[in-house]
Amino acid sequence: MAITYKLACPLAQQNGLGARIATCAVFFAVGTGLVLHVRSGLLRELRQIRRVAGAAQGVLLRPLPPSVDGLQVAAAQVSADRGASVGGDLYEVIGTEHGVRVVMGDVRGHGLAAIGTVAAVLGSFREAVHDEPELPGVLRKLDRAMARHLRERAKAEHPSSGLDPDNPVAEEFVTVLLLEIGRDGEVTALNCGHPWPYVLRGDKEAPDARDRDRDRVEHLGFGDPLPPLGAFPLPAELPVADCGPLPPGEALFLYTDGVEDARDGAGRFFPLRAALTEAVRAHPASPQEVLGTVFTQLLRHADGFPTDDVAVLVLRNDRGVVSLPHGESMAHHAAP
């Protein structure tokens, strides 16, 4: 269009000021149209890529249902890579004939580079929880899946010499916390280098407010955990930790270390226990409200965006909990 105007239009052949202004306007309009056309095409392509990526990420770390076999569920995660909805953290909750089985994990590193390991671990977990009657069998299947994943990556990146000890694949591992919650509320666990969860309790009858707050939030811990998957072989014996019962109305708060490691501008770590205490005091019976309160405080503490992947999962035992008219709740024994 610009060339046709320059060659065919008599006005373009003139040297007057008006003719020059008209020529500049034509070239400016043509250039603007070209830029807008290219921009529109790039935006359409970007939207399509985001739809495809969102669908793939939703299948990988699919949204959890609000309730699984009488357990109310709330979960959220933030990737350290801007624009990505999945990073190196993973979680899943599945109801099986053996009980509700839960996995929370954290891949070494963060962001999009860790998605392959997340897919390997979650795919194995979703199959193993239905096939394995005991929790150690589930963990061993996860360990074998992790080993296959590392071998395949090593072959793809080093087809001639095998795994280079200085390559990041050689140092890749994933921390894993496996939980099983039986129909009677009994909780058992296997921990491979992952932070132990918190127990969130309801109101406690204590004369001192500090004692009540301390009783509301309790950090579980059952000895030294096993090594992370991929770092060392699993031992012959896998000690299953008996975490005790989770009575109706109480909840478990699972998280990855990106929560406690989040720092503010002064370098202070995020006070997770204090945030949980405040959340439970304000919303003692709502996993979604507890999750929202903790995440709001975390993002405010980290100035809007954490430097590591963050994942949080809240599970409350609603079996036998009867809602009362004024928003209160009364816990009965769980049904057999």
Oligomer: single chain
Structural class, by secondary structure, is alpha+beta
Within the CATH hierarchy, at the fold level, what is the topology of the largest domain? Answer: Phosphatase 2c, domain 1
C-alpha termini separation: 80 Å
Q: Tell me the count of domains.
A: 2
Largest sheet: number of strands, sense, barrel closure? 6 strands, antiparallel
CATH class of the largest domain, anyone?
Alpha Beta
Description of the molecule:
The chain has a six-stranded antiparallel beta sheet. Strands 3-4-5-6-9 form a five-stranded antiparallel beta sheet, covered by helices on one side. A two-stranded antiparallel sheet has the order 12-13. It is an alpha+beta fold and 336 residues long. The chain is 40% helix and 21% strand. Keywords: Hydrolase, Membrane, Transmembrane, Transmembrane helix. Pfam families: SpoIIE.
